[in-house]
Amino acid sequence: MTGFPHVTRISGITRFLKNFNHFQSDPTDKPFAVVNTRTPYFQPTPFKTMTVTIKTAEEIEKMRAAGKAAAELLSMLGKQVAPGITTNELNDICEEYTQNTLQATSAPLNYHGFPKSVCTSVNHVVCHGIPNDKPLKNGDIVNLDVTVLKDGYHGDTSAMFQVGKPTIKSQRLIDTCREALLIGIRMVAPGVRLGDIGHAIQQFSEAAGYSVVREYCGHGIGSVFHEDPQVLHYGVKGTGLELQPGMTFTIEPMLNIGKRHVKQLNDNWTVVTRDRSLSAQWEHTLLVTEDGYEVLTLRHDEII
Ligand code: MF3
Ligand code: CO
Ligand code: CO
Q: From the alpha carbon of 118, which atom of ligand 1 is closest?
């Protein structure tokens, strides 16, 4: 159910939705405290007023172009993954391709001070790994998370790659995490609520024996990299924002083999599993259409 060619309902103005109930606390778990005024949108912040933008037809065209560029970049970059390459080398390839082939900008570079053009999260790194000079080795798994800024709009997507020979353990984690993303994507349609999607992702992932990271979430996206709504990968059915045509947001579940708990390293970016268990993540940027969804960052060889 992808690739709806037309968005017929066009809203010429940005509409603002208020919703005080989009953060769902989990009754089965203790609350966590990550709230401060500088918390970026990829960290859930409870009890905030939400401002969700509905994109115009013109904006949607630009989102399509940005998403396509991000998809091409991720495909290209994934092909470079092999034992011996460093994540800094991947970073340089990313930056060069973004500038010279895509005629675009790497949104991560200098974003809230992030020092590189791509996030490279290896093994027990959950997200926001900073490229470095350590070579990837046989058996590693790595998430490459790219965000392209093109003509004023963002496309954000990530995927997992195996280095050398896959292990059964990492392959199952990676496959389950991708399936969790696809389960979320296939639900996207007007009238569906974000809590329904979070719930489905959580149910599926936990039934498979993995834990879902809570401290980071998907997000609205457009001319702003991270905007409302926050898209949690866990939740309660029938709660949260109701989707409308013209909304654009990411879904980007992070699953751990061990416990869900994470910590941020002293570099103020790198997020790792507390128990050092392996973690996986996949991400797409989506558009809510009149009758479902469009995957704006769909890769050429990819079937949802
Ligand atoms: N691309 C990440 C996301 O999916 C955000 C990375 S922010 C950065 O939301 F600064 F680390 F690049
Ligand atoms: Co994102
Ligand atoms: Co991303």
A: 12
Tell how far the Cα of 237 is from the centroid of ligand 2, in angstroms: 23
pTM (2 d.p.): 0.89
Task: Report how far ligand 1's centroid is from the alpha carbon of 128 (Å).
Answer: 6
Question: Of ligand 1's atoms, which has the minimum distance to the CA of residue 252?
Answer: 4
Which two structure tokens, joined as six digits, stand for 109? 């570079």
Residue whose CA is closest, atom 2 of ligand 1? 145
Q: What is the pLDDT of residues 28-41, one digit of tens each?
A: 443 333 333 445 66
Q: To the nearest 5 percent, what fractions of the chain are helix, strand and coil?
A: 25, 20, 55
Coil, helix or strand for 91? helix
pLDDT digit string (tens) for 171-222? 999 999 999 999 999 999 999 999 999 999 999 999 999 999 999 999 999 9
| CA 252 / ligand 2 centre spacing (Å) | 6
The Cα–Cα gap between 139 and 219 comes to 31
57-295 CATH, one of 3.90.230.10, 3.40.440.10, 3.30.530.20, 3.40.630.30: 3.90.230.10
